[in-house]
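Why do we bother with holo predictions? Because pocket geometry can differ from the apo form. Keep that in mind while you read this record for magnesium ion.
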Amino acid sequence: MKSGFVSLIGRPNVGKSTLINAIVGKKISIISPKSQTTRDAIQGVYNDDDSQIVFVDTPGIHKPKTVLDKEMDKIAFYNARTNDLTVLMIDASRKFSDGDNYILRSLNKEVPLIIAFNKIDESNVLLINELKEKYKELLPDSPIVEMSALEGFNIDELIKLIKTYLVEGPQYYDVKTITNKDFKFYVEETIREVALKLLKEEVPHSIAVICDEHFEGKNIFAKIIVEKDSQKGIIIGKRGQMIKKIGIRARKQIEEYLGYNINLELVVQVEKDWKNSNKFLSKIGYK
Ligand SMILES: Nc1nc2c(ncn2[C@@H]2O[C@H](COP(=O)(O)OP(=O)(O)OP(=O)(O)O)[C@@H](O)[C@H]2O)c(=O)[nH]1
Ligand SMILES: [Mg+2]
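The structure, written out:
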């Protein structure tokens, strides 16, 4: 069979996680309209009659401001360097800018690269042609696929093209496995996704979620970590309304996933400036 690891690389918010979920057919990576949603490399496994493709969703590459940002970029660049193929995802509803240049300058030229123009449902012919000219000039050897991860348009074309690059290889995962991430990760990310949806700018970016690994049966306990005292109040909300809302929404999603009811207990804890704390970051799996 043909097999390989394919990195999904790009700026924040271009639709990498939307694409990996669409390919796998299940929500394995959280999505939000806010940038820097994904903070880790998340594998999603695609199988068909004669191939297995392990897609790797990565954090959106951006100019780092914190130690966490640096770690996130590192994860993306490491994958782009070491996997068999890179799918560089572009938001085709936006003009080319400095952020795109930053990624192109940093990408390894040894690894073959396919360009995916995503969000074409939101774009127009003029803009798409302008971007095409730009990328043909900068990456003349890379084919371009126009697609919409949200509408499921041309995902099959992308996979067909990826398969032309793959060579004979082992089956890395059994066919029932769809991701390398476990239930603990799923719970933490689901809570963070709900927070990203319910809270305004800045605050959700300051959140980390740590789920107690030793939860038993139906009782799940998780800590929402924030950077500042003032954020703790915002997450708890007036008379505890906000944390209650986050808890209910997250619990419902987790119950849907599991197929049975659970208890979800949330607490909020301040870990001052955790995004720059090497000690804390290593505790939650970075560095
Ligand atoms: N119109 C349109 N919106 C899309 C498409 N794909 C993704 N989106 C939207 O774009 C936003 C960002 O999607 P994500 O999948 O979270 O983007 P990402 O690249 O994983 O972002 P980071 O994790 O921050 O790097 C969400 O609101 C998606 O619904 C698409 O093909 N068309
Ligand atoms: Mg993402």
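The chain has a mean pLDDT of 95.
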